[in-house]
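Incident review: delayed structure delivery

Summary: a single-chain prediction request sat in the queue longer than the usual turnaround. Root cause was a stuck worker, restarted by the on-call engineer. No data loss occurred. The affected request and its eventual output are reproduced below so the record is complete for anyone auditing the incident later.

Affected input:
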Amino acid sequence: MGYADKPTAILAARCAAALWAAGTLGLAAAETPQALPGPSITRVQVKQPERSVGDWLVRMHEASRLRSYIGTFVVTSNNGGMSSARIWHACDGEQQVERVESLTGAPRSTFRRNDEVVTFLPETRVVRAEKRESLGLFPNFLKSTDGAIAEFYTARRLGADRVAGFEADVVQLAPKDSLRFGYRVWSEKKTGLVVKLQTVDLDGNVLEQAAFSELALDAPVRIDKLNQMMSATEGWRVEKADAVKTTAGAEGWQLKSAVAGFKPISCYKRPASGTPAPEGTLQWVFSDGLAAVSLFVESYDRQRHVQEGMFSSGATQTLTRRIQDWWLTAVGEVPPQTLKAFAASLERRK
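Output delivered after worker restart:
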C-alpha cells in the first residue's frame, strides 16, 4: 500500500476499531454532517459499587479474551458515513482468531490470528499478509498496561440499556483534559463484552458510533475452521507487507517534548511503492491507553504533497504538514489540538 493510501486505510479501520486496530471496511462520506441520536439510557436508583476505569477496562478485555461470538457490527459517523461487517470471533484464552467479512464497500475478508492478519480481496484475487504487533484484543482499549489511563480518564456508570437484545451497563469514560476524546461504552452485563461504543467530543457530541446490530454470544465458532480458511491461499496472489521494526531515533526523529499521556508503542519503516526501503515511510505510533496517534513521515514530494491542513472524518482527525524536506501526516482519534502538539514537537535530529 502506497503512502497516499495510509490515511484512507486508517479511516477505513473505524468499522473494526472496536474489534482491533486494523481496518477492514470503507466509510462512505456524505456531504452534509448530521448528528447521531444520543444514548437511550435507563437511569437506575439502586446504588451499585463504582468500578474504577481500570476495573471496567479489565472486565471488557477479559470478556473478549474468553468469549466466542458471531455478530453483525455497524459503524456510523457524524458525517453520514456507514459501514458494516459480519464477525466470527473464536478464542481459547491464549489464541484469538477472527474473521471479518465486509458487508459494505468493496468485498473483502480479513482474518486475524493474534498478531497475524490476512486479507482476501476477491475482485483482484490478492491476499495481503502482515503482522500487526499492536493490535490488541476486542475492544482495543488496553494499549498500555502501566495504569496511566486513570491519570487521564475517569469512569462513571450512567445506567442500563439494551443492545442487540442484551442488557448492558452504560459507562462514561471522560477525559481529564482537552487532548483526548471521551467514550460511552455499553458493556454486556453478564460477560462485560463491549456491544456498543460511542466516541464523543469535548462538548459531548457523538462523533462516531459502533455497535452490534445482531449478536450471538458463546457461539460455536471453531478455531481450526477459521485457521483453515485463513490458510486457503491457493490460486491467490499473496502480497506480504515488508515492514521493518525500528526506532524513531535510529531513523533520525525525536519529539522535543512529550504530548501529555501519549507514549510511543511501536515504530516501523514501510517501503513506499517503487522505492527502496531507505526511502520508505516511517510510522511512529503513540497511545495513552485508549486513544492512538500515528505519525507517518516520508520524503517531501512537491507533486504529491500539495495541501497542508487539518481534515476530519467522524472521530478520526488528519493533519498534513511539511517539515523541511519531509512530509508529515499525523492521524488519530483525538482532538485537532493533539495532532498539532505532535506536529509542533516533531523534529529532525541533528
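Verification: The domain at 241-348 is CATH 3.30.200.100 (Phosphorylase Kinase; domain 1).
Action items: add queue-age alerting; document worker restart procedure.
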